[in-house]
Amino acid sequence: MRKINLFWMLGLFLAFILASCAKPPTQEMDAAKAAVEACKTEGADIYAKDEFKKLSDDLQAALDQVTAKKYKEAKQALIKIKADADALKATIPAKKEQAKNEAIAAQQEARAALDQAKALLEKAPKGKGTKADIEAFTADLKGLEDSFPEIQAAIDNGDFFGAKDKAVAIKDKANSIAQQIQQAIEKVQKKK
Amino acid sequence: MEVRATKVTFVLLLIATIACREAPVLPEAEAAKKVEQRLWEAGASIFIPMEYEIFRNSLRIARIREIHEKNRFFLFRKLDGIKAEYQRILAQGEKLLQIIEERREEKETALFSSLQEVENLLSRLRVICLSINESQRIRQRITGAEVLIAVAQQKIAKKKYQEAEQSLFLARQQAASARQIVIRLFERYVDENYLNLWQKLAQETITDSKREKSLAIIVDKLERKLILYSGGEIKSIYNVGLGRFSLADKIHAGDEATPEGKYKIIKKIPTSKYYKALLLNYPNEDDWRRFAEMKKRGLIPPQVGIGGLIEIHGGGQDGLTHGCIAMENEAIDELFRIVEVGTPVTIVGTLKRDSLILKLVKEL
């Protein structure tokens, strides 16, 4: 009987020691936090918004488990978060490249539309009667030319979405001016 | 004895199994998590950053309490309090979603109203541009502003309100710059002193025409009209084209402005580069006096002359001249037949104080 009691006491003592000696998974915490931060630095909050939000939430949940002293579960979660963050980070360059390519393609389309409008204006019949119109359209196109370098500036700053938006706006405006030039040419031709 | 021990072991095992069982996920916790996601998607960090932070902290605290509670021996777990806390958070989340929706609507309304304001200004400027020859610098800025407005519209559609505001700010700057150019161009045209002076010059010309029963010409630069008077009465009105910088008064050679003042026809040229022409006596005495004064004050470069050869000619009213007054060939034919050398030609900025263009300029 005494042996049994001793056995129980020893068991309880060991359990107490083990429980009080459990430490927060500091290393895993630091590693997961650093991995998520690296992900953000890479641009995950811009190029993979939803995935990054989930990752941040998971990190917060794991840190909450640490606060609640659920170290074992927290450790497992933190290890997974680090792996997920590393995996997400690895996908960002491709996403960035895709956004950059889309911005460059939009920039080229804007350039083409602008050049097309200019070429059309070049073809417009020149004379005293059309001089004012030609100068007016030239001014419109100059306004677009002045705006055009802003696309490249946005690309250079890594603002690929902004660059694309600007390029689309310039392309649309150039097409609209080209249409007006065409109408003016037709008007002059009809007069003749 | 053995049977009893087996029974005790069985009960202990049963208790241990139940106690070690993973506590079920609270549906309230899941719902709160979903609301948090919805808040994020709705742009809580933009519209209600503080409230969103408080919400997230409440959710965290509830989650930590939940973990603590689930850590307890199953018989001692008290999840009702946690559930109530989650329900409170849920209700708070729904309220915040409503606030975001209201603020989003407010934001969009404000943005669209600012957008409309800039667009209105740009469309008024565009109308003004159609009536003047000096539109290049204005149109450049209008086009730049229109691009920025299009970008702002794209940003609003993508709910990127801050970026939309930025584009709108730049568009407003461009529009303001265009407006400033227009205001400077029309400075004299909204100045009562000038309007009175032009009125006086025109009235003197008409009175002279009436008294001497003679012909006289008045050119209204802003209206782009040439009015032929006979015996003080209007005989004909013609549309005309003017210099590239026709709103300004001609000061020197190369300024491409159409002069203002009292002139007369000094030569009739039946065959000219621009069909037929009536040469005016620009520069007159007033022009010379002003030119000399400005030269003395260093406002005109030494090598620049006063210019000359200002004519009323054919070639079409649609064109831009270097300062001359251009008419359709049929119109100059008619005028050429009627007028004589010596016919007075008074050129003024405008006689129409209430013209649409001046109204638009004053409203800018």
Unreliable stretches of chain B (pLDDT < 50, length at least 5) are: none
Helix content of chain A: over 70%
What gross morphology of chain B would you assign? rod-shaped
Structural category of chain A: mainly alpha
Q: List low-confidence stretches of chain A.
A: none
Number of strands of chain B: 8
Instruction: Encode the helix/strand succession of chain A as letters.
Output: HHHHHHHH
Radius of gyration over C-alpha positions of chain B, nearest whole angstrom = 40 Å
- Main sheet: strands, sense, barrel of chain A: none
User: What count of structural domains of chain A?
Assistant: 2
Order of strands, widest sheet of chain B: 3-2-1-8-4-5-6-7
Structure annotation, total helices of chain B: 11
- Helix content range of the residues of chain B, please? 55-70%
Distance between the termini of chain A: 123 Å
SS strand fraction of chain B: 5-15%
Largest interface: A-B, 37 and 38 residues
Largest β-sheet summary of chain B? 8 strands, mixed
- Determine the N-to-C terminus distance of chain B: 105 Å
In a few lines, what is going on in this structure?
Chain A has 192 residues and is an all-alpha fold.
Descriptive notes:
The complex is a heterodimer of chains A (192) and B (364). With 192 residues, chain A is mostly helical. The mean pLDDT of chain A is 88. Chain A has helices spanning 2-21, 26-42, 44-47, 49-67, 71-123, 131-147, 149-156, 160-191. Chain A is 89% helix and 0% strand. In chain A, helix 2 (26-42) runs parallel beside helix 5 (71-123). Chain A contains eight helices and no strands. Chain B has 364 residues and is α+β, with helices and mostly antiparallel strands. Helix content of chain B is 58%, strand content 13%. Chain B has helices spanning 2-20, 27-42, 44-47, 49-71, 80-131, 136-157, 161-185, 192-211, 285-296, 329-338, 356-363; strands at 215-220, 225-230, 233-239, 261-272, 275-280, 311-313, 325-326, 344-348. In chain B, a hairpin with a 4-residue loop joins strand 1 (215-220) and strand 2 (225-230). Chain B is rod-shaped, with a radius of gyration of 40 Å. The A-B interface holds A 53, 57, 60-61, 64-65, 67-70, 127-133, 135-136, 138-144, 146-147, 162, 165-166, 168-170, 172-173, 177 and B 33, 36-37, 40, 60, 63-64, 67-68, 71, 129, 133, 135-144, 146-148, 150-151, 154-155, 163, 241, 274, 315-316, 318-320, 326.
